[in-house]
Records
---
Amino acid sequence: MSSIVSFSSSALGLTLRLPESGMPEILAFGAAGESEAPLIERSSRINGMDAAVPSCVLLPTGGMGFFGWPAISGHRDGSDFLLHFSGWSATRGDNSLTLSARDGVARIAIAITLNAHEGGLISSRVTLTNDGESAYQLDRCMAGSFATTGADLLVEHTTGMWGREFQTRRDVIGQGLWSQESRRGRTSHDRVPMLFVESGGERFGVALGFSGNHQIVIDSCDDGRRLVHLGELFEPGEMRLAPGDTYESPVAYAGSDSAAFHAFLREELVPWPEGGMRPRPVTLNTWEGNYFDHKMDSLKAQATAAAEIGIERFVLDDGWFGRRDDDTTSLGDWDIDPTKYPDGLAPLVDHVTGLGMEFGIWFEPEMINPVSELYKAHPDWVLQVEGRPLLLSRNQLVLDLSRPEVSDHLFCKIDAVLRAHAVAYIKWDMNRDLTHVGGRKGRAMTARQTRAVYALMERIRKAHPAVEIESCASGGGRVDFGVLAQTHRVWTSDCTDALERLEIQRGASAFLPPELLGSHVSASPNHQTGRILSLSFRALVAMAYHFGVELNPLEMSAAEREELGGYIATHKRLRSLLHAPGAAFRLDPVDGRHVWGAASADRIAVIVAQGPQMVAEQPAPLRLPAAATRFGGRWRIASHSPQAPEFIRSSQAQRDLLAGAVSFDLANLTSAGLPLPMLRPESALLLELEPITGDPTHG
Ligand code: GLA
């Protein structure tokens, strides 16, 4: 007998039919309350089979009347290529539902665990156990399947490359199969496992919690709906389950909108020391201001100048270890360079902490340069496939972290630096894609490597529970819901050009809340693009995120330092609003104008940034989303920054509005909108709105 089970979070609901045999049929999935089972049975003769074989199911398996893309497949040396589970049972836990079944012929047991999370997310993960007597070759096992209503489907995803991450693309896909596969061994810059789907007025997002090889497949069902599958991608032969072995998939998430994913990351996934996020410290990162040229006196003076303008965390980037004068040597040699630091790092760390700042330090633990002491001692520690050339990328190879002696060595090296110094933060970098990912037995092992990296991060966090970690991978190459279970912020992109950052940060914000996205004010001309941009534009574009500075403050004039100090003070004043749960909002860019901000009952911060020159004669009034104006009452513009905004032209009425002389109903900003003047290209404006005190309508 089949049975119906329902599962819901605060925002999403799922109704399933557990069949006598086969996979759980998705009767409904969508906004909670709208996901009950259909009123009447639909045609049972789906797929042309005489007995009903539903095609919209969780994790379909092939070969038994399901003709779509199988989400789970494998075999035992060529046989047992069919999987057909039966005997389904449902077990409820706190916010969870586990569906279990077994295939007695192939001798594989399955458990699908659904969880409800903060923000109304629903997650899915799968375990498969080989209870047969021979090895089972698992070719594929997705972590979860979510259903859309079908018809033309809009897929909103991001793509890009180094320095151009998170470029938003909207593709309408018709019938057939859409697939995104990444084989880079890291999340990647180009195929990010996070996207939104939209169809028939319904929209939801999906994200995979995994940083290794991954895939998202959208398939058409015979009943007109679509299945969105997310999971790990195995190389041939990679996932072989010995008798008794269990495969555990990563976690796949579905959420109703960006705010839901933000809430989940902020309140549940990110492993904040002491259980909750504290105000994000304004950071100076030394990379673009120094590169490999570390000079103690200068670094100390930079730290002093940084502290004077309000910086709270000083991060020493690449170049402090081995003989690391450029990127050709020393990865793997995590001992302090005695030529640059004859008395060790302590004098610098003490200087930084003496100024009241936190000290952070860069590591790239997974990597090794062939020119290094470590490689001389252990050439066999690198990922390699016998008889194949070692392929370098940025002059480096990758260590096999699945070997306990390698992970132990790295742990001891990192631990020693952290024990000897007051380190509050690690910038954990990963500057190459994985190739020839073979272990000692010559088998593919990206799956094991990825899990070993997480385990090393976790071990370091356990040993140093107060330390925060940033996930960096040539900029934003490892940004996903797997690594964010181990880390506390991401380096969004190596491109620090504020104009480029508009799109990069917009794309990343679809899934990540602003406080997890590192955003730094860097020098002008910009080191990546050569573009010259005003300090106010650079600072305001970074303002809402995890704000920082990526330049040598000694190379700024006193006036520039003072101006930057002003923006740092503004950020500190506003960060509790900008990073408050549920406060952030963002508009789709129109005519080169990007708008984002945060709203609370007593203050709304709006950042308006103009990228390229507008085409229109006048900008359309700026309409804030209803969520930002829900507080009601009469408000006014209390302040704006910079003091003299770069407008192309403005009327007296607009100047009065900006000066706070005009009050308005807040709700009016959603209907009529704020008639702002036109900004010059490559300039920005921060508006702070306040309710009019004593206004009886403001509750
Ligand atoms: C990568 C990072 C940069 C910097 C360099 C150091 O490119 O993304 O921020 O840390 O490595 O080599």
Note: The mean pLDDT is 96.
---
Amino acid sequence: MSRNLVVILDFGAQYRQLIARRVRESRVYCEVLPYDTSAERIREMDPRGIIFTGGPASVYEEGAPRPDEGLYELGIPILGICYGMQLMALELGGEVERAPRREYGAAELFIDVEEPLFSGISSPTRSWMSHGDRILSPPPGFEVLAHTANSPVAAMGDPARGLYGVQFHPEVAHTDQGLEVLQNFLYRVCGCEPTWTMGSFIERAIGDIRERVGDGRAVCGLSGGVDSSVAAVLVHRAIGDRLTCIFVDHGLLRKDEAQQVVEAFGRAGLGLNLVHVDASERFLRRLEGVTDPEAKRKIVGEEFIRVFEEQAAAIARDTGPVDFLVQGTLYPDVIESGGGETAAIKSHHNVGGLPERMRLRLLEPLRDLFKDEVRELAAELGLPEEITWRHPFPGPGLAIRIIGEVTREKLAILREADAIIIEELKRAGLYREIWQAFAVLVSARSVGVMGDERTYAYPIVFRAVTSSDGMTADWARIPPDVLARISSRVINEVPHVNRVVYDITSKPPGTIEWE
Ligand code: XMP
């Protein structure tokens, strides 16, 4: 029996990892490989199925990516998606036409043959299309399984050989029963079993890290967020004491955050080497008088690199040369910064110059994962809940949540207001379903009245958004009574604040942070 594994061949699809993610969600292990991986190599891997992703090319373009033709002879089921389907159609003798214009968006899919690919799928069903070429007639041996108004062959299959193609994108959420279609391919066509777990991911990741690092040493900038924490714990499991984590307190953290992070790691008994540096004086001094948001980001970034370098140098003096820098880069970060090996650092990330300057190699064990998968991993690794579920927090911290100059007084106000917001959201049971919630302090003042007195004080902006990856977001529909409680507590308990406003802007056109 072949391995319970599916190989995804990448033809340049922008969201190829989304297919991988859906396969993992279906509890089947998968690997994404380049489209030109040889049939021989794939035969050796012995997978139960192969998926061809979509891609931006037209099958008629010169130099359009093509797979090894030997793949069709392996007797392994193949599912071609979009471009992958057109390739299969063309190569096996079907008729593919260059459509006069691209079809993009939702289309009603009418199912002509139910078993096995469309078993349990209603007809018509909403499917998401994004293609230029279309198939006029399927290759010999194939039958038409579904059509739309624009695509006479929206799905095709040759059950005898286990070859299938779909014109639409089953991996995207806009395709109503897309996951079921993929699962029909995995379970019914390939005979995969839903047995893969995050536990198996951990074992594999640890093995890979060991192999890559050898007997080298690594450092990790721990922020207390879930991504860097999970990356650190994974690498620690792999190389133990040869990893040292550096937690830099830049004085721009939330209320009691430094203490909470250090305690959480201590309490979790994870045994990490953790160096805690209080560098707040240095950062705050350099931020004096600075109001421009990009200038603030730059200062925090530069200073962070300096502190980190000093600490890493001290570690190297104590333990021997350091070779790797561990980062908790996730798949959406890779996409946002354009993909590729070197572009892997978060687009907004402040330690961008670090690996080159220190001649460190990057170790990014979470590169293929999405946030919710990382949280699942965190739970599996035994990380404490306050880290697993912590909202994302930007590198420059509160510096970009204070509009205007950063002062100690404003930081103190913002921390108190922020802590009340988070406390009330947790109390209302809303914290986990919100992607990020926080307070922003605008350096303007407005008039109010408290008791018999006229006040002239700061407004606090309350921002809470829902999102799945931070790339797009919507403002959270917080129940009015929770908003009321937050407003009254912030105004009553935080000095120098006399007004609370709620931000009802989605992203786009807004961003999540105010600066
Ligand atoms: P925006 O504001 O661009 O934020 O919608 C998207 C996500 O990125 C975080 N963010 C940052 N993270 N350094 C970081 O490490 C930064 O300079 C930065 N700016 C924004 C933001 O909190 C949200 O999760």
Note: The chain has three domains: 5-189, 198-388, 407-502.
